[in-house]
Every structure is written in C-alpha cells, then in structure tokens.
C-alpha cells in the first residue's frame, strides 16, 4: 500500500503543477488595453512583483511635461562636476529644470539620483562627496517645486566608474550624478 502511495503522490503533484501552469496565459496585444484617459494598461497576471512593476513602468512612460523645447534636456540624464566639488554648473541648470518640470507634471514618477566620484581620494571621502553631489541635485529639484517623495539620493563614490581610465578625461566622466527614472520615465518619441 505504501508503494502505491509513493507512485501516486508524484503523479498527482505533477498534475497539479501542470494545471496551474496551464492557467497562466501569455499576455497578448489584445489583452493590453487603453484606459478611458488613453493610458495603456498592461496585463501583469502571472508575473513576479518586480517584473510587473517594470512592465507597468515601461507602459507608463509619460508624454505629460515633455515639450519639443525640453526633449533634448530630458534625454540628458547625467550632470557632471568639477574636481572635488558638489557645485552645479551653469550648463546643467536647463537639464535639471526640464527634469523638474517633468517630475512636477508626473506625480507618479520617481527618480534615483546616484552620486559618483573619480578614483582619487579615500573610499570614505568619495562616498561623502558622491552624497553631496546627489544632494545638490536633489536640493535643486526640490527648490524648483519637485515633491521630495519622488526623489532618492544615493552615493556610490568611486565604486562605479563609467570610464576605467586613469587620466583627467576618465576622471571628468566619472565625476557625475545620474538621473535614473525608476517609475514613469519621460516619453521622448
């Protein structure tokens, strides 16, 4: 009798798993619809929480707050800094102002501001400098009217260089704050 149970249980378990998998239908274009406001909806049934959020974010790109005049500035997602400085340059004000206008027009948008440094200096010093840079961008956006809840300032210090070189050109590229949309990015098409 025990031998029969040992044979039947795996068969029943397999049948249950197969039945559960059969109920997960792939999303088709006809399942993605439009809300009354014209926004695209995405069927996220059967997706993990992270995958569902990513799918919604991609479908939720917004054209609200995007004008022909600010498209080029919204496409720019990096602000650079001088050596050992967290002061914003005059060249970056228009870029940051365009992102501020977009964020104010799109309350569901969320941005991570990641501060980076070049390789010179100690790890501790560079973590603090990266944070000051990220906070400088965050402060500008908040002062421009962006809700602080839409922003997160993070420092990576010298840990994530975009240019692995060891000269002034590489260091200049690595001294930056990246503007990373985590929810509802600008639709630039």
UniProtKB/TrEMBL annotation:
The keyword Cell division applies. NCBIfam families: Pal_lipo (TIGR02802). It comes from Acinetobacter towneri. InterPro entries: Bact_OuterMem_StrucFunc, OMP_bac, OmpA-like, OMPA-like_CS, OmpA-like_sf, Pal, Pal_lipo_C. The keyword Cell inner membrane does not apply. Keywords: Cell cycle, Cell division, Cell outer membrane, Lipoprotein, Membrane, Palmitate, Signal. The Tol-Pal system is composed of five core proteins: the inner membrane proteins TolA, TolQ and TolR, the periplasmic protein TolB and the outer membrane protein Pal. They form a network linking the inner and outer membranes and the peptidoglycan layer. Residues 28-43 have a biased composition (Polar residues). The gene is pal. Belongs to the Pal lipoprotein family. It is found in: Cell outer membrane. Residues 24-43 are annotated as: Disordered. Part of the Tol-Pal system, which plays a role in outer membrane invagination during cell division and is important for maintaining outer membrane integrity. This is Peptidoglycan-associated lipoprotein. CDD domains: OmpA_C-like. Residues 1-24 form the signal peptide. It is a lipid-anchor.
């Amino acid at each position: 009798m025990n031998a029969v149970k040992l044979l039947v249980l795996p068969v029943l378990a397999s049948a249950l798993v197969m039945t559960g998998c059969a109920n997960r239908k792939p999303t088709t274009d006809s399942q993605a619809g439009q809300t009354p406001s014209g926004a695209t909806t995405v069927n996220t049934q059967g997706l993990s929480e992270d995958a569902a959020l990513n799918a919604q974010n991609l479908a939720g790109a917004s054209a609200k707050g995007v004008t022909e005049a600010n498209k080029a500035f919204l496409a720019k997602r990096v602000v650079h800094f001088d050596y050992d400085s967290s002061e914003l340059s005059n060249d970056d004000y228009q870029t940051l102002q365009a992102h501020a206008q977009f964020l104010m027009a799109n309350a569901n948008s969320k941005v991570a501001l990641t501060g980076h440094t070049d390789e010179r200096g100690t790890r501790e010093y560079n973590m603090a400098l990266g944070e000051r840079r990220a906070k400088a961008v965050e402060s500008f956006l908040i002062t421009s009217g962006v809700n602080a809840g839409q922003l997160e300032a993070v420092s990576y210090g010298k840990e994530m260089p975009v240019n692995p070189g060891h000269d002034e050109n590489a260091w200049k590229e690595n001294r930056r704050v990246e503007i990373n949309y985590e929810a509802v990015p600008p639709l630039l098409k």
